[in-house]
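re the bet — no i am not wrong, look at it urself. input seq straight from the record:
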Amino acid sequence: MGHTEAIPILCYGDSQRGSAWLNAYRGKKPHFFCVVAFTETALIPGISAAGATPSDRRTTALADLEFLINGPRPDPRYPLPPLTAGVSPAVISRALLSQLEIPIQGINAGLAIAPTVHCIDLKGQPARCLSTGAAMDRDAVQELFNRAWALGDALGRENRDGYVILSECVVGGTSTALAVLLGLGINGNGLVNSSHSQCNHQQKLALVRQGLERAQLPNQAHPRDVVAAVGDPMQVAVAAMALAASAHTGVLLGGGTQMLAVYALAHCWATWDQLNWNPGAIAVGTTRWVTADASAKTHQLPQRLISNDPNGPPFFAADLNFSTATVPALQVYEKGFVKEGVGAGASAIAASLYGGLIPKDALNIIERLATG
């Protein structure tokens, strides 16, 4: 199939670097990693639609990871959680990645409950609620960063001929994303997305202000101290892995707001500690449902991430469209529910670059899995 027929990839942020990244990795086979973690921020009523109740949200990451790696099973240990509307984006990722035989691996950065599938274990701890201003212990954050750096370095070396996709599943993660952005001095207020159809900006901002006030961070705090105060373990792990892997291969951060915050954290950390990395190797990839969301305007966020760079990192959006879907749970993506997660956008970008999948075929593949 010609590239023009494949799933369109929209580019925001640094479009020149974005085009160079796409051209460098078109036709190359990625290795997909899903980094899972837990923050007690997820348990706040109404904070997230990734699980209908706080109890559901305790196991969302476990269920998504189990489905991503095993696919549909008659008796899963953790079934995909009921959502306010729609179906987990793990269905999108699993359908596209398995169709293209792209390898999938889970990485546990800090879950509260042990996963049911094999994962690389970074021995991180789950985070307390960001409103405490003491989400994680500073020394534990540095240790997690060091372990993740070593893993990222190894994965980068192993995947020199392709690239790595680092995705996430952290319920409440857009709230910790806003917290880390504001803690780093980046004004992301109003630009941070959510799993709700209308983003809950005021609820997030109130939580973040409470956490930052309690943290009492100095001006120009080390990024490690910011993420320890109000972040989550996934952010630490993916920032370190992306930086280390970028010295050897391409890195696609699979997610919207959460991965833009991770990029900002990684950039600040690398600058602060003068770490060796390759900024040109890293891009962020999400879905059109994130960048088209008028209640968040996330597509404007890359331009705010780096003080001396007016464009920010390349930010891609896979132009998936479910308006013609025959499965109602997929149709609601077009109404602003769910939007992204578990690397759905990055999986579609990979399906376009590596498999040349056209939108109609991609939808058929996804629908087949969604109807079981």
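see?? Residues 100 and 124 are 31 Å apart (CA to CA). told u. also The chain is about 40% helix and 10% strand. so pay up
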